[in-house]
Structure formats: C-alpha cells, structure tokens
C-alpha cells in the first residue's frame, strides 16, 4: 500500500494557513471569518423562515464536514462512516429532549463525551489499519448505524424518529434559536480547530501524519496519534449530530444512512478538506442544498453528487499542472 | 437425539445455503481483489455498476427497453459493463498513480453516478429477474438441493476456475501477477501497467455481472440490492486480506456461512453490526488475510 | 574519564536481519560522552540501520543496548526520546504543514504539560508554553545560523537549510545522545564549514554525539573516534589518524571507487 496520504493533493493545492497567518501578524483569515460571521448574524432578518431554517442545517452539516476533513488533515485517513458519530450526537439530543425534557445544556456535553468515547473505542481495534483498510472499516461502521437505530427503537423511536422541541433559551423564538445555536456551534468548533493547529498535540499529529518515524523519534507514538484524532473527529461528528437534531428539529434514521456518510465525505472533498470557516461552510452548504434543490428529481441527486465529487478530485489533480504549465508559458513569453 | 436433529435439519442446510451465497460473495470479492491487487484501488463503484447491468438485463429482456432473449440481453449487458469499467478506469488512471486513497474516493463518485443512472432509467421500483434454469429439487441426506443451487455452484466453479487459469497461464495473467508483486520492477521489465489495470478492471466487471445475475433470483432487483450484496463481498475481500485471490474465495464462503448461522441462531436484525465485528476481528487477528499463515496467497 | 564511561551509549552483539539478509552482524559499540564519534562506511553498510536499532525504530534480533548502564531493549522510540536520545534523519523528515519554527518546536513538544483543554481553548498555560517552546526553537535556529526562517515553511527552504532545521530539531531539547545521519548531505562548502563549527560548539562533556557522514573531511576534522562499517561488520575503530592509515579502510574506499 502506498503511503501517500490523501490530503497531499489538497494540502499542496491551497494550504490552510489561517492559523499560521494569524500567528505571523497578518490577520486576514481571522478577519474574513469575522466578517462572515457578522453577515450571517443578520441573515435571519433578510431571509424568510424556511431559508433561515436551511441555513441552520448548513451550519450543522458544516460541522460534520469539518469532522471528516479534520481526520484527513490531521490523521491522513478517510472516513466513510461519520454518520455513526452524527447519529450518536443527534440521538443524545433527541432522547434527552423527548424522554426527559432536558435541553442542550446537558445533551450537547453528553453528545461530545459519547462521540469522543466511541471514537476512541472504534480507534483502538482499528489502530493498525491505514488508508483503504480503515476506509472499508468505517464503511462497515456506517452500515451498522441504521440497523442499531431501528433495533433500539424503544429509545430512538425507530423509523418514526424523535421531535426536538425543548428550547435552549426558554422564551426566545424557536426558529431563531435553531439558527443561532447552529451558528454558534459552528463558530466555536472552527475556533477550537484553529487553536488545535497551534497546540503541541495538533503539531504532533501533523508530524505523525507526514513522518510517523520522525514523530516516533521525538516522542509521539503512532497509536496515540491515531486514537487521539479519531476521538477528536468523533467528538466533532457528534456535535454535528447534536446541532442537526436541534436545528433540524427531527431525528430519524433517514438522516444517518450510508449515503449520508458518503455525502459528508463529498462535502469534505468539495471544500478541499479545508478547516477554515468559509471552507467548511462551502462543504456544509453543498451537503445541505444539493438535495433540497434537486428534491423534485431525486434520481439526479446521486448523479450530481458523483459528478461533483469527481469534478473536484480531477480539478485537484489537474489544477496544479495547468497552473504550472501556464506559469511556464508566461515565463517563456 | 435432538442435537443430531438440529444438526441435520438446521445446521447442515444453513451451511449449505451459506456456502452457495458465499460463492457469489466470492465472485464479487474476486473482482474487488483483482482491482486492488494491481492498482491498489478499492472499487466502491463495483456493486452499483453491477446493479446497473443487472437492471440492463432486466430492461433488455422484459420489454422495458427492448425484448431481446435472455442470452442476448446478458451479452449486451456484459458489453456495457466492460465499457463502463473501461471508462471508469480511463478517467481515474491519472489519479491511480498519484494516490490510492484519492482514486478510491473517486470510485465512490462513479458508484453514486451509477446509482443515479439506474434510478433515472428504471425508477425506484422493485422488479423480478429470474434465471432461465430448470426448476427441480432433490434431497441428499436430508439436504434440499435445488436447481438454483447447482447452477450457482457450477457457474461459480467454472468462472473461478477460468479466472485462475487465465491468471496462471496467459500472458496477461502472468503480467498481472508480476505487477501485483512489484509494479516498479515489472514496469522496468517492459510490462505495461495500464493495460494490465484495464485487464483487471474489465475482468472484475464481468465477475460482478455474473455475481449480480446469480444473486438476484434469491431476492428481487432494486436499486440497492446488488450494492448491498457487494458489501458482503467487501467483507469477504477484507477477511481474505484484500490482496489474495484464494483468500477472497475462502473469505466469501466463510462470510456466507457465518452470516447464515448468525441470522439464524443469534439475530437477523444485527447482520451489519455482525459484519462490522467480523471485519474488525479479522483485520486484527489476520492483518494480511486468513490464508497468510497457510501459505496460500500465491496468486 | 569516569563520566565518559558511565554516560555512554553501548550496544553489545547487535544483530539485525531482514528476511534472512544479515544487515548487522553482531556489532559491539561504545559511544562515549564528551566525544564526537564518527560512523562511516560505504552505501548499504548498515549505518542507518544501526541508528534505527539504537533509537528503537528497529528491534534487533540479538544484542543488548544500554545508555548510562540502563538497558534500553524493548523500549519504544518515544521512551528513548524521553531519555534524551534523539536523532536526525538521512532523508529530511520535516512536516510540510508546520512552519520551520514549529518543526523545531517538535523537538521539545514532548516535554509540554499543557493538556487537551489547552489544545482547544485559548488558556494561558498552553499559550505560555507555546511561547517558551517558540523561544527555545528560535534560539536553536539562531545557533545553527538560521535566525530568520522561523516563519517560513520547510518547502520554501533550499535542501541544505532543511537539513540544518532537522538538526536544530534534534538539538533544541538539549539531548544527552545526539545521532546525526548524514548532516552534511546536500550542503554546499560554506554551509558545511558552518555545520562543522556548530557541531564543535555542540560537543560537551556530557553529550554523546554520533555522526554518520560520507564527507571524509568533515568526519576526520571533528571526530575523536571513528567506527568503520562494511557489510554490517566493523572493519576498523580508532582515532582519525589510525583509521586513515588502516589498510582495510583504504581498500574499502579505494575498492568501492574501482567498482564505480
Ligand atoms: N526496512 C528494511 N527492510 C529491508 N531491508 C532493509 C531495511 N532497512 C535497511 N535495509 C537494508 O539494510 C542494508 C543497510 O541499509 P542502511 O540504510 O542501514 O545502509 P546505510 O549504511 O545507511 O547506507 P547509506 O549510506 O546509503 O545511507 C541495505 O542493504 C538495506 O537494503
Ligand atoms: Mg543511511
């Protein structure tokens, strides 16, 4: 098996240097994110209720896309099973809400804990799997999800699903809450991920991804790296699910199918595995909007996803070459 | 006495039918392994493309598209499968030499497209697609053996036998083996990587069509039938080590039998979870496939 | 003298083979503190493999390895790093996603105590720790004559400088055993001269320094003792003067010239 990590393409095409740039004095990416957030804060007043709702879902899905991209960027691994974690988070919120009337105050931390724990639990038996082997294993994970949901129907409500109605802030408009909670979650997660880039753990993960032997020689064990990144990615995946549950108001098995897991990966590829707020928003918007826009002609959805996936991958492959060729041409000219 | 009864009435028939389905998983797994062995790509479009071709057979022989005879329909569908495999590999071949993981993700894209095209052409309905085989059944030692069972067994044996003969004795097969062992050395020796990759992709597509046509009579044909079936093939390939053709064969039969036993004795509702467990366990106990210690991963 | 004996990296009877091919054939080594030891030999002699055995990347089939009398066998590389045994790599192993400064910081990151909360939240502890590490990294870079490249990415530097960054990462943690694998490969003459000066400066009474190098001038000028390895066996051990005049060594080097 070749060692070339999947992110090579993406990393080399357009390095995600937001954290770096902030460090070196230039604050452009931070400002971009700030402006973006400011604009998004006002969106509900410009858009109708249904678009506000859709945007909330975009934010939630962006978190899921971020979870997948993070695994690629920091672990060099591809997951096609992140619905396992999103389902975990969504049902944490759904079950606590419908059974016990407990709102996000408690269910989001629970979702995070469960996501991290199960990420670690999955990482341990798969710690020696890499590349394609891990991808196939996550695929099996994704397939097991709907089955588990339907079999725990006493808790999960089976096919029917659950309806999340307890407000986060009692008294405030539910529609606006669903929007702003999602936005806040997305901003917080993006910020935390940007911090991770600067931490010793994050740097160790990056070194372990590109040069495991060097990381080893300086005190970062490979198994530690793998287990940590799966825990983090699982936790963020669960936060995505929790946000989806609250902003989308319903939790049902249809949201956590195998296809949904692939769509998250497609979203990640479409955003070129970016970790910055604008990038993950692109991925999240893709995952959310494509099925909505094509909802009248359902058969086109997989075709469109497939074409987008291929298009982005081929673009990632040919862009640097084209750019190089153009540079050469302009040099000779 | 009851122990023997249950052995004869439950266990043996379960193992027999598990073995029959297992042969089909093996056909699917062999295709996946052939592609993986030489090009290091896991072809996630395998199931959806095979499903599309099964639908083509249905469409061409039932009058939805045309009213050909079953044989002619199969022939056309095979050609379509070969063409699709050719197309897919042509598009991703520049990626294959760059990153195996990126090209694997690309095959997911083709899988999505194949599924969408199936939906667009044939809709989401469930159809029946049977094999033109004589219906009979007899029992041996309390085991009910049907014409379908024998057909599957015969086709699987002939196909797999032919595959191994091709790989062992033809020029392309030998090149395939050489490239799977060491692509760099093989290329230095003047073997053309791409033509061998095409050989593997096309052979895999044909194996996929055969597997799909044989599995459909046991259930029915819908957009997801064959893709779901191929997931068991994935598990079979993983158990066999993903890079061993005999391993895929053994893995297929093993998965078939294990799944049958699990659904009967434990629970039919947790089959995917069971599959996940089997994969994780197999990858930890036999990281290079079950045949690694037996010394059978020659091909 | 006593200090040198106790703080030495020792290997006894180190034997390593890959699928029946014997790469190291029962080597006895003693790398002493306060000395710069050279390890030379033709390509494929097993120099890097010996490094890998000593740092724990490979586990030799036979032999014992100890530092300062403490056995190291069975310890993973990370645990040996914790004891201050660090190395540089023959093929530059810097992370392209990290800045040069951050790459050097990785040499001391294992000493950090900031936990996972600091990793995700802007807590003072993590921020302060990062600043300290950055300062140490900048100092190490300055020592190696690279004061202004901290914010660049490794890919933006010429290969010679990348190698110096790699060495900076190894020395930033004030190691007790420093093993450098071909530090001068890819360096031009003036860079090599600077490197020589730096290595001399690094040498101290309690540091075990081992240098694998093909540049004979460098090796002969800085090393106190030299081991000559050929086909997994030592053909000579001694001072530069002794090795230079050793018949076997001359034959190996001249012989390999004849072959080419
Ligand atoms: N992981 C490995 N698997 C198989 N053989 C190996 C492995 N590592 C090293 N070898 C073999 O061990 C022998 C010694 O290699 P090593 O890298 O130690 O040589 P070296 O002295 O460092 O050479 P160079 O000066 O070229 O760096 C070589 O023949 C090499 O092929
Ligand atoms: Mg070497």
TrEMBL record, chain B:
Belongs to the binding-protein-dependent transport system permease family. LivHM subfamily. CDD domains: TM_PBP1_LivH_like (cd06582). The chain crosses the membrane at residues 14-36, 48-66, 72-92, 104-124, 136-167, 198-216, 273-291. It holds the Pfam family BPD_transp_2. InterPro entries: ABC_transp_permease (IPR001851), BCAA_transport_permease (IPR052157). This is Branched-chain amino acid ABC transporter permease. Its main location: membrane. The keyword Metal-binding does not apply. It is a multi-pass membrane protein. Keywords: Amino-acid transport, Cell membrane, Membrane, Transmembrane, Transmembrane helix, Transport. The lineage of its organism: Bacteria, Pseudomonadati, Pseudomonadota, Alphaproteobacteria, Rhodobacterales. It is found in: Cell membrane.
């Amino acid at each position: 098996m070749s060692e070339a990590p999947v992110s090579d393409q993406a990393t080399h095409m357009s390095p995600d240097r937001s954290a770096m740039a902030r460090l070196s004095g230039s604050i452009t990416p931070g400002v971009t994110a700030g402006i973006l957030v400011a604009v998004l804060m006002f969106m509900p007043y410009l858009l109708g209720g249904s678009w506000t709702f859709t945007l909330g879902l975009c934010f939630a899905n962006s978190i899921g896309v971020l979870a997948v991209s993070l695994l690629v960027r920091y672990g060099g691994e591809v997951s096609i099973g992140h619905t396992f974690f999103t389902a975990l988070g969504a049902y944490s919120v759904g079950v606590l809400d419908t059974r016990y009337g407990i709102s996000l105050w408690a269910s989001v931390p629970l979702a995070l804990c469960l996501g991290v724990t199960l990420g670690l639990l999955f990482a341990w038996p798969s710690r020696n799997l890499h590349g394609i082997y891990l991808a196939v294993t996550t695929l099996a994970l994704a397939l097991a999800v709907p089955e588990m949901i339907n079999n725990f129907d006493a808790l999960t409500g089976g096919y029917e699903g659950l309806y999340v109605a307890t407000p986060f802030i009692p008294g405030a408009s539910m529609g606006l809450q669903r929007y702003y909670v999602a936005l806040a979650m997305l901003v917080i997660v993006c910020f935390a991920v940007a911090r991770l880039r600067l931490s010793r753990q994050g740097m160790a993960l990056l070194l372990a991804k590109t040069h495991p032997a060097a990381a080893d020689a300086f005190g970062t064990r490979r198994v530690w790296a793998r287990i940590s990144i799966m825990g983090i990615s699982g936790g963020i995946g669960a936060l995505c699910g929790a946000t989806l549950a609250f902003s989308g108001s319903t939790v049902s098995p249809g949201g956590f199918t195998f296809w949904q897991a692939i769509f998250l990966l497609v979203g990640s590829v479409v955003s070129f595995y970016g970790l910055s707020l604008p990038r993950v928003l692109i991925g999240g918007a893709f995952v959310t909007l494509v099925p909505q826009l094509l909802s009248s002609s359902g058969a086109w959805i997989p075709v469109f996803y497939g074409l987008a996936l291929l298009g982005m991958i081929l673009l990632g492959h040919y862009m640097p070459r084209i750019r190089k060729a153009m540079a050469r041409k302009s040099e000779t000219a | 006495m009851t122990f023997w009864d249950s052995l004869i009435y439950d266990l043996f028939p379960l193992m027999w039918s598990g073995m029959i389905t297992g042969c089909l998983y093996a056909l699917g797994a062999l295709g996946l392994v052939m592609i993986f062995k030489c090009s290091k790509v896991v072809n996630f479009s395998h199931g959806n493309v095979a499903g599309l071709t099964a639908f083509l057979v249905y469409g061409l022989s039932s009058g939805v598209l045309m009213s050909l005879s079953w044989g002619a329909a199969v022939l056309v569908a095979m050609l379509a499968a070969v063409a699709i495999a050719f197309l897919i590999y042509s598009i991703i071949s520049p990626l294959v030499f760059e990153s195996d993981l990126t090209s694997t993700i690309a095959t997911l894209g083709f899988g999505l497209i194949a599924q969408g095209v199936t939906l667009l052409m044939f809709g989401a309905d469930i159809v029946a697609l049977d094999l033109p085989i004589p219906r009979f059944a007899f029992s041996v030692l309390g085991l009910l053996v049907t014409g379908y069972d024998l057909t599957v067994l015969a086709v699987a044996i002939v196909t797999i036998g032919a595959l191994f003969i091709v790989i062992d004795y033809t020029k392309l097969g030998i090149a395939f083996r050489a490239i799977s062992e060491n692509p760099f050395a093989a290329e230095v020796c003047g073997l053309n990587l791409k033509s061998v990759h095409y050989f593997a992709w096309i052979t895999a597509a044909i194996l996929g069509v055969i597997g799909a046509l044989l599995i459909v009579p046991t259930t029915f044909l819908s957009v997801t039938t064959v893709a779901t079936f191929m997931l068991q093939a994935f598990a079979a390939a993983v158990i066999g080590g993903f890079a061993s053709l005999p391993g895929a064969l053994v893995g297929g039969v093993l998965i078939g039998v294990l799944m049958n036993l699990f659904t009967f004795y434990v629970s039919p509702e947790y089959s995917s979870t069971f599959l996940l467990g089997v994969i994780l366990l197999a990858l930890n106990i036999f990281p290079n496939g079950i045949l690694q210690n037996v010394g059978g991963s020659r091909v | 003298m006593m200090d040198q004996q106790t703080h030495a990296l020792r290997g006894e009877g180190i034997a390593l083979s890959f699928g029946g091919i014997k790469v190291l054939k029962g080597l006895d080594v003693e790398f002493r503190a306060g000395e710069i030891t050279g390890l030379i030999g033709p390509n494929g002699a097993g120099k890097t493999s010996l490094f890998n055995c000593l740092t724990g990347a490979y586990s030799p089939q036979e032999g014992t390895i100890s530092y300062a009398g403490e056995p190291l066998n069975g310890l993973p590389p990370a645990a040996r790093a914790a004891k201050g045994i660090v190395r540089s790599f023959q093929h530059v192993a810097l992370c392209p996603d990290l800045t040069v400064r951050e790459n050097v910081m990785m040499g001391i990151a294992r000493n950090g105590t900031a936990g996972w909360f600091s990793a995700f939240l802007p807590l003072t502890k993590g921020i302060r720790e990062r600043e300290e590490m950055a300062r140490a990294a900048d100092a190490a870079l300055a020592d190696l004559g690279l004061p202004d490249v901290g914010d660049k990415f490794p890919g933006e530097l010429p290969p010679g400088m990348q190698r110096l960054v790699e060495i900076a990462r190894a020395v930033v943690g004030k190691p007790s055993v420093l093993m450098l694998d071909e530090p001068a490969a890819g360096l031009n003459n003036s860079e090599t001269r600077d490197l020589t000066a730096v290595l001399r400066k690094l040498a101290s009474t309690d540091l075990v320094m081992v240098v694998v190098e093909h540049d004979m001038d460098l090796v002969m000028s800085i090393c106190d003792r030299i081991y000559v390895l050929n086909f997994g066996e030592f053909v000579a051990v001694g001072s530069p003067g002794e090795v230079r005049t050793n018949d076997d060594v001359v034959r190996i080097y001249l012989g390999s010239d004849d072959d080419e």
